[in-house]
């Protein structure tokens, strides 16, 4: 009986691990479909795909999906929603450094918030320069 329980546990763990890898593949595939739709100017389709991707919100890949959603909304001239989505992306970002802040600067510009846009863009330049200095010192 102990052998059966052990075998059952091994099979169960294998299935759980296989499912986790399948979810990663599905999330990556969905992100790729979002990018393809965006590149083909199929904004509504891309936006629908980002809604489907919410089921992966607990996975690191969801960060890049949020960034893509922000880009889609910007392309659709839905700049306030793009800013809100970008801010959600920024909060989920696993590192404190956000090289993508230049996109936030552009969204703010498109909203007519020129002073805020300039501030964000200048801060982004400073962060990039600091990051490059650190990399050069290694």
Describe the structure.
With 138 residues, the protein is an all-alpha fold. It has 6 helices and no strands. α1 packs antiparallel against α2, α2 packs antiparallel against α3 and α4 runs antiparallel to α5. The chain is globular. About 9% of the residues have low confidence.
Fold topology:
Blueprint: H1 2-39, H2 43-52, H3 61-75, H4 79-92, H5 101-110, H6 114-137
Helix pairs in contact: 1-2, 1-3, 2-3, 3-4, 4-5, 5-6
Tags for this model:
138 residues; mainly alpha; 6 helices; globular
Overview in brief:
This protein is mainly α and 138 residues long. The chain is 80% helix and 0% strand.
Q: Any low-confidence stretches, pLDDT <50, length ≥5?
A: 12-24
The 3D shape can be described as globular
Number of strands: 0
Strand content: under 5%
> Helical region count?
6
Elements, N to C (H/E): HHHHHH
Distance between the termini: 57 Å
Average pLDDT metric: 84
């Amino acid at each position: 009986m102990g052998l059966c329980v052990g075998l059952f546990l091994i099979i169960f763990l294998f299935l759980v691990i296989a499912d986790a890898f399948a979810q990663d593949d599905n999330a990556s595939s969905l992100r790729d479909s979002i990018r393809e739709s965006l590149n083909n100017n199929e904004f509504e389709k891309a936006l629908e795909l980002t809604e489907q991707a919410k089921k992966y919100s607990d996975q690191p890949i969801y960060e890049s999906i949020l960034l893509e959603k922000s880009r889609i909304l910007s392309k659709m001239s839905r700049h306030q929603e793009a800013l809100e989505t970008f801010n959600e992306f920024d909060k989920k970002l696993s590192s404190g450094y956000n090289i993508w802040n230049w996109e936030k600067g552009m969204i703010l510009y498109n909203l007519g918030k020129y002073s805020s846009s300039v501030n964000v863009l200048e801060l982004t330049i400073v962060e990039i320069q600091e990051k490059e200095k650190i990399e050069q010192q290694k």
